[in-house]
Design goal:
2 copies of one chain form a homodimer.
Chain A lengths: L3 E8 L4 E10 L8 E6 L10 E7 L7 H10 L10 E9 L1 H4 L3 H11 L2 H7 L5 E6 L9 E7 L4 H12 L7 E10 L1
Antiparallel strand pairs in A: 1-3, 1-4, 2-3, 2-8, 5-7, 5-8, 6-7
Chain lengths: 181, 181
């Protein structure tokens, strides 16, 4: 799994039509009509209104047994029936980043059941995580989800579950962008 | 501890005079006369022969108790007597990055005693770690060390100790740049 960069460009172009942008906490993102997902790109397209960049890389908290279960049950991106998507950029607080690895892992899984909750919604929801913090971006993570229209209610349930956790107490920036193609 | 970028520029300018560059494994770096350490910089200076970029950020493997001990015993950078330095860029193999977090941590500390070995050489050797992998750089980490000339023998000992560990079996690129000011 070599790591690779991805740019999410909001503007007038792209496969995905923006259905709505909600600011959950922190600074908002300007409204745009469409979103282009540019795999393998580090550059910022000049025509975009805004661009969020991240890197798909190695897992930071998942343990081997969890990895195997996630890998076995996770669908790939690009399923024909998955015509809805969500891009959720997240910024965590300095308090989070000052924690040590064992403390972050404990909040992530023991207290917040982040992986366990996600597993319940497989294989309906495909997911890809992008790390942005080292790039000096406004958000620390960009998570991309794809699902069929009839599964959007379950996706809303998953997002609500995660927002109620101890881990989410460390989120100080979050925007929820809903899309369709 | 907000994260910040650093650029190490090799060329004809900079505070540090290059005493030698050794390739330990993998691709070499071209010889240069001097090295400039540019804190807070993401740009690549045009005058440099080569530039290595990284981000000083949160700790990836260290647990809270280890953090406290390291923090209590680690000297800061820029001590007047620390007129020698080393920059050691490291690239780890795809086999390393395919491991899960618990497996990497076990090799890092249980098998390789990376933190324990480092603690033995405190407070003589100051250290700062820079992460480069997400930036698409040729190396994954850049570690910067500062010490007094009489402590360079002990620094050589530390480096030899780490190179003999199980963790170092996953290193497929390493260059050792020695400097003085």
């Amino acid at each position: 799994m070599p790591s690779f960069p991805v740019a999410f460009a909001g503007g007038k172009e792209g496969t995905w039509r923006v259905r709505g942008i909600s600011t959950v906490v922190g600074a908002p993102l300007p409204a745009v009509e469409r979103l282009a997902v540019l795999d393998g790109t580090r550059e910022v397209p000049q025509s975009a209104t805004w661009t969020l960049r991240g890197v798909v890389g190695h897992e930071r908290y998942v343990e081997r047994s969890e990895h195997e279960e996630l890998a076995a049950r996770s669908p790939g991106l690009g399923r024909p029936e998955a015509t809805r998507a969500a891009l959720i950029p997240i910024k965590k607080s300095e308090a989070w980043w000052s924690l040590s690895q064992d403390e972050r892992r404990a909040i992530f899984e023991d207290d917040s059941r982040h992986i366990e909750s996600g597993l319940k919604y497989l294989p309906a929801i495909a997911r890809r995580l992008h790390h942005s913090r080292d790039l000096g971006e406004p958000f620390d993570f960009l998570t991309w989800f794809e699902f069929a229209p009839q599964d959007e209610v379950r996706f809303d349930e998953l997002v609500a579950l995660l927002r109620a956790t101890k881990e989410w107490g460390f989120v100080d920036g979050e925007v929820d962008i809903r899309l369709e193609r």
